[in-house]
């Protein structure tokens, strides 16, 4: 992939002879939100730590911005922001004071503190002690810290973990804003399948240390659509089965006619055919498998 910011080739890693990653490959395009999806223990955090050079002695190649991580880690980290697991914050300091500590480390201007507070929506809480922040506010402050040096690539490990529904929505909107408005390429890991579907443009699915799927969200949705079905409630199941059996793959479940979904036009023709033959259609709907169903399907295969 010519525009890949991150390129991982045949990456393997073991903890005390226990294989955590097994020959995985990934490509993260510039300008994308890459949803790194998998259950807890699948290898997501291990992969992210390897991407940041926090773990070593792996097998395989990690290239970021076209440069080998092992030979240019310091230079590459200047272009990366990250939030791995729990944020490291000074609870006795205010939000602004936390940012000031890291500002001095990054050697950026004071106005950058105001800028990142505005980006993450914490301007009004800048003088509030972090110990009084909600978990969602702490997560957003941690992202503000990672944004101080204006990185091109943002790596977020389970940023919605533990948040209430309101906090999840705020985090989702922040991720989308950082990508679309501020041009950040974002790698975000999650076990919350529906969240990945709502934010990501690219998806990678990892299970037991192996990559099972990688592609665009559209690719994933096409797979999902291929597993969708049409459910119909009608007045005469026997007559409908006889009519449709020669043309469609059809079955009955709990008194409903089930036909594989092809397209909206196909569904309309199916409905018209039944009506033309005097069969009353009480209800017709398309049941689409959600991402969770699809994940179960992919991992089981």
UniProtKB/TrEMBL annotation:
Pfam families: ABC_tran. Keywords: ATP-binding, Nucleotide-binding, Transport. The keyword Transport applies. One of its GO terms (molecular function) is ATP binding. Signal peptide: none annotated. Residues 6-233 form the ABC transporter domain. SMART domains: AAA. PANTHER family: ABC TRANSPORTER, ATP-BINDING PROTEIN (PTHR43335:SF4). Belongs to the ABC transporter superfamily. This is ATP-binding cassette domain-containing protein. It comes from Niastella soli. The lineage of its organism: Bacteria, Pseudomonadati, Bacteroidota, Chitinophagia, Chitinophagales.
